[in-house]
Amino acid sequence: MTPAVNLESGSLGLPAVVIHGGAGEFALAPSSPGRHGRLEEGLARALGTAWELLVAGAPAIDAVVEAVALLENSGDFNAGRGAVATSEGKVETDAAVMDGATGLSGAICSATWPENPVRAARSVMALGGPAKGPVLLAGQGADRFCESAGLARRDPATLTCDGVVPISPSGTVGAVALDCDGHLAAATSTGGRLGKMPGRVGDSPVFGAGTWADDSTVAVSATGEGESFLIAGFAHRVDWAVTGGASPERALFEALEAVRARGGHGGAIVLAADGRFAVGYDTFAMARGWRDATGSTLRPIRFGP
Amino acid sequence: MTPAVNLESGSLGLPAVVIHGGAGEFALAPSSPGRHGRLEEGLARALGTAWELLVAGAPAIDAVVEAVALLENSGDFNAGRGAVATSEGKVETDAAVMDGATGLSGAICSATWPENPVRAARSVMALGGPAKGPVLLAGQGADRFCESAGLARRDPATLTCDGVVPISPSGTVGAVALDCDGHLAAATSTGGRLGKMPGRVGDSPVFGAGTWADDSTVAVSATGEGESFLIAGFAHRVDWAVTGGASPERALFEALEAVRARGGHGGAIVLAADGRFAVGYDTFAMARGWRDATGSTLRPIRFGP
Fold this sequence. Notes:
homodimer, alpha+beta, Glutamine Phosphoribosylpyrophosphate, subunit 1, domain 1, five-stranded antiparallel β-sheet, 7 helices, 13 strands, about 25% strand
């Protein structure tokens, strides 16, 4: 049984950051003692990292990249170091970043080189955006770009699981932030679906699907069954509903209903340029938290239905 | 100078097919004698192939796949055999198909194996769609899937241009069709941007960007500067505008304006389930044609401004 959509919303002061650590079946499987605590600790540290940057005046794009990089490095989420394996026991990662101030964006998919896929996505973004350079690099081309860009390489020993496909430690990670200048940004990083076919790409690295940021509307990061989020154009739906006057909460709900209509499940975080935010998911749990000057909120990660 | 948006629309009887052979700078470079005639001959043959299938009662998805496969095989378009080279003189192809009757979809990107990328996309579609299997495969994973699926392999000798980067022979190819049962389908295939960075992926293989089909609205295939079409969520914009009551022509115009606002240029074909169709582009020319029971229309491919 999958629960109905669980929604939560509010308004944050500027600056602000909202993060997630995935929505999915991980919530059903408390596999090891202390895991719950590690997930919450990772989320808290990522919120803290983003917050310190934001209050120091850093742009939102820096805050979301550093928050996601920390979650990638923790090994406790399905991204970066903790990315789950394909059907052949190998790791292939996807990530995207988008800067709402400039519209610049970058993403990689099916990459094996970068220690931090979110930094690789940011390096693609630095190529100049849609009018100047590529915005999405795949496979070997992505890996060679990472190498030539001087990005830190993932320990090759961690790319293969020697035939052992681990259970999913957690979900996709993502962050959205609003900086002191009122600019939005979004970042998403994932190892993809556990046991996926090699080469499989979901919504995370696709702008307007799993990742989106536009200062005139919202920043979005999604998590869940990526094919349905991709086909539904999830983040574009949120963006266009907000453009049409819907609240972030209503926009998120409607976009998630479009995913559910295609048989998909998952969740997302949405942050608007006026500080309104929303979190929604239809899985048993979604790891999430947010922070502004009034303090930090971390939702307990519930195991089991 | 780039011209304003050039629009053309009408209504076709059932069954019907609309195809394109790209919108772009190729129109500025009549590189060899007889090339104009070869492009038109290819389009005419592709229209004929799709038409014969449709009148025989074949589903729209078969018609668009066979029309695009023929254009891929001609070598005169930037897809399949004629795909342009990356900055390193190698060929990497992208393609997508979508069936408006079922919502099933499949795509590949940065692939080197398939002789016919559009057939590879269709084989991904056969995995079951968003609720069951992957819908987008990238790079080596895509190539290995093609091999295991028994798809014909591209002659490896044609994968490398020995350092010679040819001029773009023409553009991306695509087809949309409406079959005797009233179902829509779309297919797009491309070699991507001439001299692209290895691994670069544009809008063609992304559902809701360069390719889309939904029986309740429209089928779409786009061509042009893929980054802007991808970020703009081009085909989703067309689909949602038609859902909101816009004509296919108006929807295409508005979506192309969103691409232009991001600095991009190109064109698209749109076919609605009620037979209304539209073609639009803001480049100097777009190779295109359509066919229904009243006959075949092939627009001359104009060279130069």
